[in-house]
Amino acid sequence: MKYVLEDLLKIRKIREERAQTELLKKKQALEAAIRFVEQKQQELEEFKKWRLKEEDRIYEEAKGKLMSLDDLDNLRLQITLLREEEMLKAKQVEDAKKAMREAEQAYQKAKEDYKQITKDIDKVEEHKSIWMEEALREAERIADIEMEDFKSMAASEWEEEKEEYEWELEENENL
Predict the structure, then answer these.
(1) C-alpha distances out from residue 169 to 101, 156, 172, Å
(2) With 0-12 CB in 10 A as exposed, 13-18 as middle and 19+ as buried, what is 171?
(3) Following DSSP, what letter does each residue of the chain receive, concatenated?
(4) pTM
(5) What mean pLDDT do residues 15-33 have?
(6) What pLDDT score does 143 carry?
(7) What domains does the chain contain, in order, with CATH numbers?
């Protein structure tokens, strides 16, 4: 006998496979986002070290030189551009961290969805187990009833044969 909710169970298992695939994708996206944050942080740290050395080099070149106001403005502009680039790199780190947090949230949601789907499947499978036990008990009950009918039928047939035999015996004795 086919389980009455077999189609529902199949659909839920298909959903489980999809949710598992989605969970894997979200996990990979999260791992990629984590690596990207680490890369951007590394780039920022390396740039900070380089910027400090570059500023020192620019200042060392300017030391002891007679400079015009335009040259001083140019020097300040170089330093400002280096610091703005560092701020840009720091913003890239923050943007990468934000994307990583979003990837973490998406991963957690996919994880919760997968957990709920497996929970739903467990409920249907538990119902299936109960249903199958009840179906088995019902089949056994029907088999018992049929056996009782067979036994009572066999007994009544035996009685009929016995009566017929006894009748034949009586007739033979009367002869």
Answers:
(1) 100, 20, 5
(2) exposed
(3) ---TTHHHHHHHHHHHHHHHHHHHHHHHHHHHHHHHHHHHHHHHHHHHHHHHHHHHHHHHHHTT----HHHHHHHHHHHHHHHHHHHHHHHHHHHHHHHHHHHHHHHHHHHHHHHHHHHHHHHHHHHHHHHHHHHHHHHHHHHHHHHHHHHHHHHHHHHHHHHHHHHHHHHHHH-
(4) 0.69
(5) 97
(6) 83
(7) 6-174 (1.10.287.1700)
Which carries the bigger pLDDT value, residue 139 or residue 175?
139
| pLDDT value, residue 4 | 81
CA dihedral of 150, 151, 153, 155, whole degrees rounded to 10: 160
Buried b (16+ CB within 10 A) or exposed e, 61-75: eeeeeeeeeeeeeeb
Token pair, residue 143, equals 């088999």
Let me know: does 100 contact 31? Beta carbons within 8 Å.
no
